[in-house]
Amino acid sequence: MATTLPTHPLRTPADLDRLMDAIGDARVVLLGEASHGTHEYYTWRTAISKRLIQEKGFHFIAVEGDWPDCFDVNAAIKQDEVQYGSAARLLQTFNRWPTWMWGNWEIAALVDWLHGHNRRQPLEQRVGFYGLDVYSLWESLQAVLRYAEQQGDGAMSAARKAFHCFEPYSDDPQEYARAIAFVSESCQDEVTAMLKTLRQQAQERQPANLSEHEQLFAAEQNALVAVNAERYYRAMLKGGGASWNVRDRHMMETLTRLLGLHGPDSKAIIWEHNTHIGDARYTDMRRDDMVNVGQLTREQLGRENVFSVGFGSYQGSVIAGREWGAPFETMTVPTARRNSWENQLHSQLNGDNALLLSEELRQQSGLKDSIGHRAIGVVYRPEFEQFGNYVPSIIPERYDAFLFIDKTRALHPLGTEAQANTPPDLYPWGE
């Protein structure tokens, strides 16, 4: 790996000009991260997102977060005046472990910027903020029930049946998964009927305004979350990549729905971990028949309409937990493993940051084979990193561009107290 790679300096947002040119007219831009707790990944994604919104007219940001919590943020940033007190207070809605992923000061700064940007735009042009994930089973069921009761229509009966079906499991989806492992009965029919009812009503109803239209969309989306979350927890019983695929297919379905909501010319910015946005076909995930959003967007929208940006670093610090559900800690990220992608970049750049474009990297014959590429999840144990945390990847095919930050700092959490129940840890990188 002695090949000298083509790189471009990365110091300020002005250095993103080459990236903006490479993105061109892409409809969906996927912005990754090599961990869920690194300051620079969030701030550089923010810098890219601002330019995409201001210069290329992107319509919304969709993140690896729960739909109900993110929709609260979406509603708040579209108001004319600040009605949420402060961004930090608003982000306390993210109280499911790992709370720091979206409850942090870096996102608070983005929220303030989005609100300031939006208040200068007409309502129909205001930028949205949405969650793509599937974990919020109980919260989404409650949201559908509240919506149906407000409407006082036929959806109320279906929502109550679905809600009551899950009640014996004390709002713990893992308890539900354990229970159906031993019986044939599940809540699949109830949540499917609820979604069907809401979709029928959506076709019949004519929303009076844009806000009402989005509320109707949100209710249907919460029903879809319930359907796919139920599938996700049943898939846990099968092991392997089954539940991962349910989750990423749900995120892709949500993205497709959001693009439809915003119209045929809509453009989306996606914030997710590299393991979701970097095309799975160019990693060892393919061996286990696992798909991800990066692969699905290219397949369904066309590769020319999708641009994915990976991130990585050589060393630094990170926010993570030592086990699933544990309190977050600031941890040291050791220097990257020998012969890894990050180690090669550090050796060449002598500690500088850089932007790399895959169109240029593909000219390098040495990059047609897989190379270890670091992935840190919400669960991390630095002392064991040399034995894991690296995803074999064909970098120029997995991503369309790569941002390398030689030394990174830990994210700045708000310190929101996590609620008791958390989604299960199924994957070695703690994703």
From TrEMBL:
Q: Which domain of life is it from?
A: Bacteria
Q: Which InterPro entries match?
A: Emycin_Estase (IPR007815), Hydrolase/PRTase-associated (IPR052036), UCP036794_erythomycin (IPR014622)
CDD domains for the chain: Ere-like
Residues making up the signal peptide according to the UniProt record: none
Q: What is this protein called?
A: Erythromycin esterase family protein
Provide the species name: Hymenobacter saemangeumensis
